[in-house]
Amino acid sequence: MSSFITFEGIEGCGKTTQIQRVAELLRSENHTVQLTREPGGCPIADQIRTILLDADNRAMVPETELLLYAAARAQHVAEIIRPALAANRIVLCDRFTDATYAYQGFARGLDKNMVSHLNSLATGGLIPDLTILVDCPVSIGLGRAKARIASSSGPREERFEQEALQFHDQVRAGYLQLAAKNPNRFRIIDGTAPIERVTAAIHQQITTYLTSHTG
Q1: pTM, to two decimals
Q2: Which of 99, 145, 162, 178 is the most exposed place for a label (fewest CB within 10 A)?
């Protein structure tokens, strides 16, 4: 049975580490898993990701940012996510439409109806079956994110990390509002717990979901 499960959270919450760990666990249990991410996930979307996360692109206006995310998502959904779901895979996606609401809607202040319309256009109405929100205080998340960037030898994808604390507070508040409005889809996980404990909590939530929706 196919399932579309997304991982969300502020910068440095640990979701990228956790989605990889959970994917390994599910594969060890003989599930067929497609692991992907946004922005990116396929060659065209990865090129857009480079533009979006490059700290040199400080002049980018919120509307450009929103439209680039929508463009990357449209390609990603068509090329990766929908084919994987059609093949009865469990799709684990690092960020999806909720990130656009949190970052561009809540934090950037763009019209939420416009964000909703673009999300719907880009995805063809695709909504995650389950969303794991890895939550932690902004001070902790940003500290982790900046440490990761400082130790990385790869591209410095840090345009969002350079935003003011207030921006990140608004992102987190946006995510928590989304979770409160969609309690049947969201599961909030404490991202300040030890890595192994966070993995176990997420794995339990996903296993419970898969069990309840099988047969």
Answers
A1: 0.93
A2: 162
